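Database export, one record per block. Field names are fixed; values are copied verbatim from the stored entry.
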Amino acid sequence: MTGMTDFITTARWEDVWTIWFVLVDDAYQALERRYGRWRRTGPAPVFHDSEVITVALIIDTWFHGHEALGLAFLRQYHPTLFPHLPSDGWFNQRRTRLGPLIDQIRQVITQQYGGVSGADPDRLADSAPIPVATYQRARANRTVTGSAYFGVMNRRRAKLFGFRLHLTTTTHGVVDAWVLAPAAIHDSQALPALVEDAACQALLGDGAYHNPTAAPVLAARQVAAPPRRDSRKREPWPAELRRWVGKVRRRIETALSVLTVVFNIECPHARSLQGLVCRISTRLLAYNLCFITGALLAQQIAS
């Protein structure tokens, strides 16, 4: 069986990187045609923003987010692909500033290649922990401060300091929308923000998103979540429906597993909040690109 990330080890890396650069650059130019130039002052840089984003994708896919290691590898073994690669510090600054644009590029590419379409209005919701620091060193952390960032990871029976990444995917596992919420905020409280911009969608969450106090609001947006274990007697769901929900929800759980194992999304290696958002945006873009890359590589081989 062919997996969605098999190309990382089976395909020529140069082919994958070229495809990613073309996709990113096309989306970048489409956004500039629609909203105007991203850079309003100063001369255009020698190392283009599309190249910065492509190198960031390479680092977060092949090197688990280790920038220094990834940049050193590209300079030593692929100097002709990125001949104007800047220094480590300057690359980090440019990449961090491009964080909001990276997520817009993800949306453009995903819509352009049919990953998210109006023909599929169903969405799945789940969350993943994003630690900012170890719990023991949380008080000394300066990236974020306050009691709102202290939480727990129930499945791991461990404490958490940082955020929770709440995201929605299609029934095929393509990431659609996402928000970052402080770790102390319960999943059910973050759900209204996650579906704020959603229209004509039916969303299915797990028991953690079951919020009786927000039932009217969530029902108006067609949000469904099975009752928690402690309330199943008051709000029973048929066993057959529960089995169907569990089967469907495996798809978003698989998506989170790929994001965690392959793209190391739970270890962003960021020292600022802006850098954290940038790295999460980059890894979600890399994940969605996996759905497109395999098909494009097959076309390239056939031609």
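Remark 1: The CA atoms of residues 91 and 234 lie 55 Å apart.
Remark 2: The beta strands are 122-131, 150-153, 158-169, 175-182, 202-204, 223-224.
End of record.
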